[in-house]
Design goal:
515 residues, 5-stranded mixed β-sheet, 3-stranded antiparallel β-sheet, 15 helices, 17 strands, 13% strand
């Protein structure tokens, strides 16, 4: 090395730029910020969810009067080296802001307590005011504009301005850089709670503020933070009118996705990874119709259907088999459907397949009937489905005991062939409201606005010697999304997606003929 050659120690964080040569001259920096057309002056439309946000804030605020509630969106997560996964906001943040899509990484919504009656004069009986802390786009003369591959406009497009975000959400919006000072304001007199799982950086900031103010922090604050997440989760148990509309749209988009699958089944049969053909057909429709998939698609042909969460989808699709497809489109609003249909690959059920399919369909009907009984509880839906499952297994000589005996809590032998639950709440998360208390979920009475699945199944693995040979390798699940209406009745949102043996066969034929 020459004596006059300088060396500098490069940090690991800076080494990602070694593969590229960014322009760094002052002349370039001066030039890059000039000669750009003015940005559009028209503000974006107010989001459809905006009119429903205050009611959501009021409901959660009633449980935490006088407390500052910090709800982060979460940040970008590294997928590989210097590339990130597509951003998806934490559901509690999305519910409190009405924001979907990919606009809000690193954002935080704070529900600020309204201090006294005078402050609340213009807000009626509201207990909190929502303030959205957001990272707006940088100016075109900034280095971020052209050099920041994670946030820069040249790389990922223009973020909204603070004013544009206010127009979209109807919320008060501030720069994210002011968040820490805001949280520290009166921190000793105002309790702080946060959704700690959403963003580790925000959790660290909140804990620092709490510690400096003498408030419970770290693990000492876990219990009260858990209570916030619990209440935010339970708030989504009953959907408002906007949410119910989104759920219906998600189901409609999902039906279109299933029809794309049916179109591609003949090609899937000829493909060494036919399940991937099925998965890809649905995924393309999900991206065209909404934000993408609500969860990883299960495309399980033949015996793969007996692996409940089969998402490898790397198997063949064979003529004469059934293929179980569990899939849902997530809209830009982040509401997702969750539908399962078990389709005969060649368009016709054979006798053993139809036998199993109709047993599952009968269990679906019993579950829906139970949900419509006066005073029905969430747990009743599953129990009704299991009665049918146990009875059919007894009729076929599969159960080693009577159905009545198997249904006793100390037995449950029928669950060998139906090991999962029959229902779960559905909304922004495919398993929505998962942090809700048992008494608000499993043991709760069904209430208007609840949206949940009914999805019994029967799974006879190919190596299961306890069942007749003709049934081995058959796996069937039928899953519909249902809603509790204002009058207490429960109906299928997914009623238009065919589900009987004859309707499924006719549906498939129509799609193929129209292709």
């Amino acid at each position: 090395m020459a004596e006059n050659e300088e060396t500098t120690e490069q940090s690991m964080a800076d080494r990602g730029s070694n593969r590229s040569r960014r322009p760094n001259s002052q002349a370039f920096k001066d030039f890059i910020g000039t000669n750009w057309a003015p940005r559009p002056t028209q503000m974006p439309k107010r989001g459809e969810a905006a009119d429903y946000l205050q009611a959501r804030h009021d409901k959660i605020g009633q449980d935490f009067k006088g407390e500052r509630l910090v709800i982060p969106a979460g940040g970008l997560k590294v997928r590989s080296n210097d590339t990130d996964y597509r951003f998806r906001a934490h559901s509690s943040f999305a519910h409190m802001t009405g924001l979907g899509g990919e606009l809000e990484p690193d954002s935080v919504v704070v529900l600020e307590p309204i201090a006294n009656e005078g402050d609340a004069a213009d807000s009626g009986a509201h207990t909190h005011e929502a303030i959205l802390f957001f990272k707006p786009r940088a100016s075109r003369s900034s280095e971020e504009f052209y050099a920041d591959a994670r946030y820069g406009e040249f790389w990922v497009g223009a973020r909204p301005s603070l004013e544009e975000m206010e127009a979209m959400t109807g919320l008060k919006v501030r720069h994210i850089d002011t968040l820490r000072d805001f949280l520290a304001k009166d921190a000793g007199q105002v309790q702080l709670r946060t959704v700690r799982e959403a963003d580790a950086n925000i959790l660290a900031m909140v804990n620092e503020v709490r510690q400096q103010a003498g408030l419970p922090h770290g693990t000492d604050a876990n219990e009260m933070d858990d209570e916030l997440q619990e209440k935010l989760s339970e708030l989504r148990l009953q959907k408002d009118a906007y949410e119910l509309d989104q759920m219906r749209l998600a189901v409609e988009a999902t039906k279109e996705g299933f029809e794309e699958i049916i179109k591609q089944l003949p090609r899937a049969v000829d493909h060494p990874r036919g399940e991937r053909v099925v998965e890809g057909a649905f995924g393309a429709r999900a991206r065209e119709s909404g934000n993408g998939l609500g969860y990883d698609t299960i495309a399980a042909s033949g015996n793969h259907a007996n692996t409940l969460h089969w998402i490898d989808n790397d198997g063949q699709v064979k003529d004469g088999d059934l293929i179980l497809v569990d899939a849902g489109v997530e809209l830009d609003s982040l509401y997702t459907a969750d539908i399962t249909r078990t389709l005969p690959v060649n368009g016709k059920f054979n006798e053993p397949q139809a036998k199993v399919y109709n047993a599952v369909l009968d269990a679906c009907g019993a579950a829906l009937k139970a949900a419509n009984a006066p005073g029905a509880k969430f747990r009743d839906v599953h129990e009704a489905a299991m009665v049918v499952i146990a009875q059919r297994l007894e009729e076929w000589g599969v159960l080693p005991v009577s159905a009545e005996e198997s249904l006793k809590p100390e037995s449950q032998l029928h669950r060998r062939w139906m090991p999962h639950g029959t229902s779960h709440h559905l909304g922004m998360d495919v398993h929505d409201c998962a942090q809700a208390r048992r008494e608000m979920y499993l043991d709760a009475e069904l209430k208007p606005g609840m949206v949940f699945t009914i999805e019994p199944g029967l799974y006879f693995r190919a190596d299961d010697l306890a069942v007749p040979e003709e049934l081995r390798g058959i796996g069937v699940r039928i899953e519909d999304d249902v809603v509790v209406n204002e009058d207490g009745s429960v109906t299928r949102i997914s009623e238009d997606i065919p589900r009987t043996v004859s309707d499924v066969e006719a549906w498939m034929q129509r799609v193929w003929e129209a292709k």
